Amino acid sequence: MSLPPDVRVALSPLDAYRELMARPVRGAWLRALERAALVAVIVGTSMIMSAAARVPIDLVLTGIVCWSFVPIVQALIGLAVIGRARGRPISVPRGLELLFAGHLPWSLWMLAVVGVFSFTQLTPGLPVLVPSMAIPAVWTLVIVYAFCRVALGCSAARARLLAVAHQAMTWAAFTAYVFLVTGIRYRLLAAIGA
Amino acid sequence: MTLVRFAAWTVLACGLLLGTLSDTLPERASVHVGGFEVLVGDFHVHAFVGDGAIAPWMLQRHAARLGLDVIAVTNHNQTLASRLGRAAARRSSGPIVMTGAEVTGRDFHLVAVGIEHPVEWRQVRRAIEQVHAQGGVAIAAHPLRGFAKGYDDAALAALDGLEAAHPDRLDPRLLPQFEEFFERTLAHNPDVAAIGSSDFHTNAPMGLCRTYLLVRERSEAGVLDAIRDGRTAGHCADGPLRGRPDIVRMLTPVRDALAPPAASAGARLALALVWIALLGLAVAGTRG
Asked: ipTM, 2 decimals?
């Protein structure tokens, strides 16, 4: 039995994207939507598991709806990157689908964190969690480079630039979210006298 | 891979079904001490649309699962989430959901309970005055050094309560800072209410640290009245009760009856099934 595409993308992204590009597909928008919906399910359910340690369906569904802004932001960033690749060999929805196929590193990180909180007595704090994010971040950078190189048909230099831009936008969005919803914003504003 | 994907979705459905069927609310007879009813509260709960994970309109039922009678939704410098939570809660007879905010300044954090509108966040004394003007109570939040520097003597004297029990207090390195602030506040404000709060965001369980209140009536007014009068004690996990000695003496015999209920075996199994299913879905992806 061969490995699923998402695992192949994670382990050998250049080869996996070449293989996926060779496959004819229909219904690209629907496939892209399915990909984004799967991310919403994983993120939303994980957040509820971590917070509530219970999984009644109403709580989980609400969590999925609330946290669906995550794949929406990811899709918007993906659209920005795909739109910058002139002469790409694939359609926009096919590009989104292939980009979401590279979500495994972050999905695994999230499930690992939820697993630790849910099934062990360990309660790792931010000093552990934040550095551990480097693993999926670097891993995703490699995958996005391969996506730009193969799926978007970019030169190596252009692919590097777009991959870095993709990650910069992702982290900017994450930082903006943290800045908006936590108390950090007020500490900074007070510190600069605003 | 189709088989793995199908299996993962099936396990997810089974996990959610089991999680729903095992989602029963614990029954607890009301507890009375010295002519007061004892309520269990958590006054530091963050919600989605802020830095909490759970939507405000789902918090009331979650509080009921954990044996809480009252919660306050306290996002940073905003009351929107708490007003949404209260509006949803008023349609049912479950725990009381109170409005509030965690007033967040550079050198202080203050939990305001029972307010409708955000208050001044740059200066703690003005914040406390505005909380009182709205009929709310002001509680010093996790008074560790970085969050307590803004409290001068006048601010300490004006406080209605302080978080004497908080998850950070379980860290032995931080415990002395809590104790030092508690002693400093008591010197200016002997009747200050000892509050237990979980500071619930995305993982510390809601109600891990909780407040026991001696109320004259089970209502928002009764809760605020108990805090103003210092008829409270804070409690974390299996630690000691923190509060005025007379209140602690009254509550000690009933403490076990107020302990948080454990999750059922069905709920724990459901959690494991859903986790395994998500792992399967993450690996199997969607159509190849």
From this structure: 0.94
